[in-house]
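In response to reviewer comment 3 from the previous cycle, which asked for concrete evidence that the modeling workflow produces usable outputs, we include below a single protein chain processed end to end. The sequence was submitted unchanged, and the resulting structure tokens are shown without manual editing.
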Amino acid sequence: MAKKTPTKKGYFLAIWKKDEDNNNRSFNKEESPEFLFVIIKDENKEGIFKFPKDVLVSKGIISDAKRGKMAFRVYPAWEVGLNKTALKTQKWQVKYFEHLTTNY
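The workflow returned the following structure tokens.
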């Protein structure tokens, strides 16, 4: 479940695991499931992202040959007034988003 942050638009999500030395690290392609589901609940708005693994690899979130990310931000379609970078991210993310409420 992604969390709304008070100072930035969008919702924050941490995804990491512990390695053999008990250090946090990003997930890699081989160990990741085929989809990552991210739930958003914000007052009367609810939705879910269903990201395919290959998309997350192509966006550098799940590692392939290089290091992945241990956290990232998601932007449902109802998020407006985004900066240029967030808008670019939202554009690819909304393809994988489904509204679970009709009021937004």
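The chain is about 15% helix and 30% strand. We consider this sufficient to address the reviewer's concern, and the full set will be provided in the supplementary archive.
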